[in-house]
Amino acid sequence: MDLPEEVLAYIFSFLPMRDRYNAFTVCKAWSRSMIYSSVWKYTEVRCEGGVDILQTFSAYLPLITKLRLCVGLEDPANRSSALCALQQAVAKGEGQLRALCVDCTGNARLFDAGQDLLKGLVDTLAYRPLLTVLDLRGVPFTLNDNFVRSVAKSCPKLHGLFINNPSLVCGVTTETMREVLNLCPGIIALGVFHASLSPAVIGDLLLPGRPSLQQLELRCERSLKYTPPLGDEIWVELRYRHPNLWVELVLDHTLPELRVPLVLLPSIPVRHLRLLTWTLLLDEINLVGSSYANTLETLELQTPASRELNSALVTLATQCVNLKEVHCYCVVSQEVITAFRENCCLLQRYTLKTHKEPHPWTCTILK
Questions:
Q1: How does it assemble (predicted)?
Q2: Which residues in the chain land under pLDDT 50?
Q3: E strands, the chain, where?
Q4: Which residues pair with 43 in a beta bridge?
Q5: Which of 4, 24, 61, 218 could form a disulfide with 194 if both were Cys (CB 3.0 to 4.6 A apart)?
């Protein structure tokens, strides 16, 4: 059965770049369907096909509105291919690119700071594309002040900026964050290191002329050891000014244990909480149940197993009844699993194991 080209175009829009290339070479009808802009609205480029595939589709890359770049770090040629794709999509500022996500895979070379990739991003974005979303959570290199300022100056239309990446240290100061908020006044979704916040940054978010902040993701790591803690009263003000705000907190293993209670403040509207500390979390779990019961939807724990932990999780399941996901990467009792399944009616996915399994642990999907 011959399908209309419009239907083929819709089908091909779900394919990554290599599969589109394969489809392009099948027949003339499939090749013609590639000219439809709907094929390119969302495109994932994995940089695994080399420059040849990019050259084949170079005329269509400026049609991309949402681009996800997956960059392999082992081979420098992959970075060159990724930057080539981005340059063609930006088309010197004349492309339709509105959202860019960069994900890096594999292990970087020793002492590799990723300067070639970061400089290529800055140089390409200097053409001032009309980006509204920039997601760099998948870039493992430290993003410093100069890089973030350059991006903000080149993309003043940003509504979403995510620089809470898994680098070892926070490279963005509070002064830079204030400059970013001034350069990009339309930001309503923000992902940063917690150490990049300060009362002054929160004060800028409270200004009456700013749009309502919807999403705030905070990565909490060792840098918080050197920054003054934010008081709970600041979060009360922020929550009052932005009533639809939800927060994701990620606490990694480098965060000093004494700093954890200063991060988990009761007035934060926490929707997603990831406690990846590998420390005893009994007090924290009790605090979560009492403070975030009405807002929490996702909980992830990396902590040692114990009978006390089982008891705390059973109690938590009766408090945080709006949970949609819970993942605990240590062995728990069957009572814990039963408690979450019976009390959390919205539960969709969970990782709760009564015995150890080979890594990675599989997730149970309910809905």
A1: Directly interacts with SKP1 and CUL1.
A2: 1, 49, 51
A3: 42-45, 66-72, 99-105, 133-138, 160-162, 189-193, 215-220, 246-251, 270-275, 298-301, 325-331, 349-353, 364-365
A4: 67
A5: 218
Assessment of whether the complete model's pTM goes beyond 0.85: yes
What is the rounded CA–CA span in Å between residue 45 and residue 54?
Answer: 9
Helices (H) and strands (E) in the chain, counts: 15, 13
Summarize pLDDT for 236-287 with one digit per residue, the tens.
Answer: 999 999 999 999 999 999 999 999 999 999 999 999 999 999 999 999 999 9
C-alpha angle 39/40/44, rounded to 5°? 115
- Specify burial of residue 170 (Cβ count, 10 A radius: 0-12, 13-18, 19+): buried
Q: Where are the domains of the chain?
A: 269-367
Q: Per DSSP, what are the bridge partners of residue 161?
A: 134, 190
327 CB neighbour count, 10 Å cutoff: 16
Cα 104 from Cα 46, distance rounded (Å): 10
Burial 46-70 (b: 16+ CB within 10 A, else e): bbebeeebbebbbebbbbbbbbbbb
How far apart, in whole angstroms, are the C-alpha atoms of residue 80 and residue 362? 35
Q: What sections of 43-160 are H helices per DSSP?
A: 50-56, 76-90, 115-125, 145-154
